[in-house]
Amino acid sequence: HFNQSYFILSLCKRIRTEDGSPLEDKIYVTPTKTRFGNNFDLLSFTSASIFNFMRDACDQAKGRNYLWYFFHAPMYNVVRAEEAEEIFQSPKLITKNMVYDLLKPFLREGLLTSTDQKWHSRRKALTPAFHFNILQSFLSIFKEECNKLTKVLNQSVDKELDLNQVIPQFTLNNVCETALGVKLDDMTEGLRYRQSIHAIEEVMQQRLCNPFFYNIVYFYLFGDYRKQVDNLKIAHDFSSQIIEKRRTLFRSKQLGQADDFGKKQRYAMLDTLLAAEAEGQIDHEGICDEVNTFMFEGYDTTSTCLIFTLLMLALHEDVQKRCFEEVENLPEDSDEISVFQYNELIYLECVIKESLRMFPSVPTIGRKCMEECVVNGLVMPENTQINVHIFDIMRDPRHFPNPNTFQPDRFLPENTVNRHPFAFVPFSAGQRNCIGQKFAILEIKVLLAAMIRNFRILPITLLSDITFENGIVLRTQQNVKVKLLRRKQE
Ligand code: HEM
What we know:
The protein has a single domain (2-486), classed as CATH 1.10.630.10. By secondary structure, it is of the alpha+beta class. The longest helix has 32 residues, at 284-315. Helix 9 (190-209) crosses helix 11 and helix 13 runs parallel beside helix 19. Strand 1 and strand 2 form a beta hairpin. The protein has 19 helices and 15 strands. It is globular and about 75 Å long. It has helices at 2-5, 23-26, 47-60, 81-89, 104-107, 116-126, 132-154, 163-180, 190-209, 216-222, 225-251, 269-278, 284-315, 317-327, 339-343, 346-358, 390-393, 413-416, 437-454; strands at residues 6-7, 12-13, 16-17, 28-29, 66-70, 73-78, 160-162, 364-368, 373-375, 378-380, 385-389, 455-459, 468-469, 475-476, 481-486. The strands form five sheets. Strands 4-5-6-11-8 form a five-stranded mixed sheet. A three-stranded antiparallel sheet has the order 3-10-9, with no helix packed on it. Protoporphyrin IX containing FE is lined by residues 96, 111-112, 123, 175, 293-294, 297-298, 301-302, 305, 361-362, 365, 426-428, 432, 434-436, 439-440.
């Protein structure tokens, strides 16, 4: 009886079915390679091997959801839209799992990592910062950054262009100006900040790859602990100083007025937080956490999507041609293109969605059961870890026939009518969905429209050259390269 209730050598309680039916009828229970649960099933901890391990696990389960037992906790892996729905919709399952603890040294209790009352009140306070009118005011920032990048790209015409070298800078500049109200390129500390964010991500990646590094003592002794501490200090000091400066302006009611150079201060998301602070809803630490969260969530996710979409456009000339025909109709002067006109780029949006489907920037999201609860007819003990594999859900052949083929037409309105509402979830779904999705789509469209109008994009990197890596954000071992040809000269 004890053995039926507990996975003894994995030191955790077992999952059982609510109605007493055999567990295997509801879920694939992954066989363990040792008697100690699935703890030692994976022995080479590289980002690439973990990515492949998860894909193999889904294949082995033949597309069913599957179960692992790790030390102290069962892990429920969801790869089907039907069961993901209950998790996305459950008001009880809003606490993130242990993977998010790795983000906490940087983001502390920001919107992405917080839970319960804190998360509810922050989400309410921050939602207005993503209102349509505000998005409209960000459009000019996206265009400015886009023009800067186009100038750089003009110098790379007819040569090999490494997208990983240029795109992340574009998205970081955008999120920095919209969140904090400062231009990274104009600041002496800008480069150091950019490098520190990159270094913090490298350390996170190191910890994510090796479960031993989840233990802080082991990480302190054998990991890049020092690198993390030094770079966190640079990143935290940078945002904290900008917040201080903007607070002074906010308190003296100078925001929105012209600065010393006669330039009007633009709205930044930080202003919404400063207004909340004035009403006693948040303190300085809280503001720092939220700003860092935006910088982290809004930077790598968007650049990953842009890189994959550009790769797919390069590899599919016919798709690129259709996009060109669509963007050709936009006003010649990009300053005149409105948010509405970007919204009307229906085919380009299908291309972005199809890229996100095949290469979701966030391949897995996690939740944790804070108490024993019933999910999809399974009784999950307290502390059960839940992984929703967005990557596998969006390659389910039941919802997306030929899932490994790039077909943007899947997202034309007439082709989506009967699709399961949770089959396409690159921005997650339910109350903890991505707050920045409209922001991201607009930013992505601004750059893609400009690039497609100005250049023909030719492939250098092929899909077969790419090795995927597991990360908080989907990564590739190799940088993605393309070649640009100027259209006007043709
Ligand atoms: C293509 C771009 C993007 C993708 C694919 C994406 C995807 C996601 C996903 C899957 C989540 C859920 C994470 C989870 O449950 O663990 C999320 C949450 C979040 N995203 Fe995004 N995101 C993108 C862009 C952005 C941008 C541009 C911003 C901000 C400027 C942003 C801010 C956030 C925040 C703050 C959360 C946490 C929301 C909450 O828990 O209430 N994201 N995003």
